[in-house]
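Protocol step 4 of 6: structure prediction from sequence.
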Amino acid sequence: MQDSNSLASIPLRPANMAPPAPHYPWPAPYTSAMFLSFDVDAESAWTAKDALNAERLITMSYGGYEARVGTPKLLELLDQLDLKATFFITGWAVDAHPAMAESILKAGHEIGHHGYHHLLPDPGDPFIEYEIEKGFEAIKRRLGVVPTGYRAPSGEFTEELRQSLVRHGITYTSSFRDDVRPYRHVLATGQPGTIEIPVTASYDDWMHGLSARFSPRSIFPKEHVLSMWKDELDEVRDWGAMVTTVLHPQCSGRPMRLRLLRDFLTYAKNCQDVWIATGEQIAAHFQQHEAAEAAQKA
C-alpha cells in the first residue's frame, strides 16, 4: 500500500522532460524506418532474477540455447536477407560465450551495451555504475569494441543511469517507450543527454514467444504475432515514423519463432519505403539533422 508521504513525494511534472521528437526526414528514398535490434542475455537473463538459478540447470538451459542454436540461426537468417542489426549483449554473455559474441561481430553487426549481469537498474542501486563499467570492460577486452549504444536490462531506467551514460560517452540509448521517432534526452540538470531510439513495445518477442517452465504465459501462434507486427509497421509507415524491435535469440532463435521472424523481415524488406538500419546508423542520421538545425539557428 502507498502512504500519503510517498504519494506527496511524486514530482508534479512529466517523468521525461525532453520535448516531443523532431520530425527529421529519413534518408531518401525512405519515408519510415525500422531499428532492427536483438538483446543477447544468455543465462544472465535468469541469474539476474535469482543468482541461485546458476545451480538450476534446466532454468539456465533456456539462456544457454542462445549460444548453442539461437544466435547462429539468427545470424544465418540475417545473412540470407542481407540485413545488418544491432545486438545489445551483456558483458556476462560476452565472457561466458566469447565465440558467440565474436560471431556476431564477425558477421558485421553492431555490438551494443546491455549491462553486465543484466541487473534491472533501480533508483539508488549501487550496482548501476558497476554494471556499466564492467560491461564496457568485458566488451572491450573480448571484442575490441567500445559500444556507442545502450539498452537497459529489463527495460528500466533512472536519472542516475541517464547521467552516467553521458559521462561514459554513450551516444544513444534504446529503452524508453514514449515516442515513435528518435529524440534527445534532457538530464535533470537541463543538459542534453543521449539520443533515444524508442522501443516499440509490441515488437518484444519475449512477451509473445517464450514460456518458461513456471511462466503463466502461453506462446502466441505465428499468425497472431505476424498480424500484429505487420499492422504496427503499416500504420507507422503511414505516420512516417519508426519501429524498434527487441528480439532475443533464446526466443526468436527457436524454430517456430524463427519462421515467424523470417516472414516478418521478408515483408518489411519488401516495403521499399522502410529504412531497416542499426542503432548506430539511426543515431548518426539524427545527429546530422540536429547539427544542421542548430547551424540554421546560429
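Step 5 (inspection) to follow. The two ends are 52 Å apart (CA to CA).
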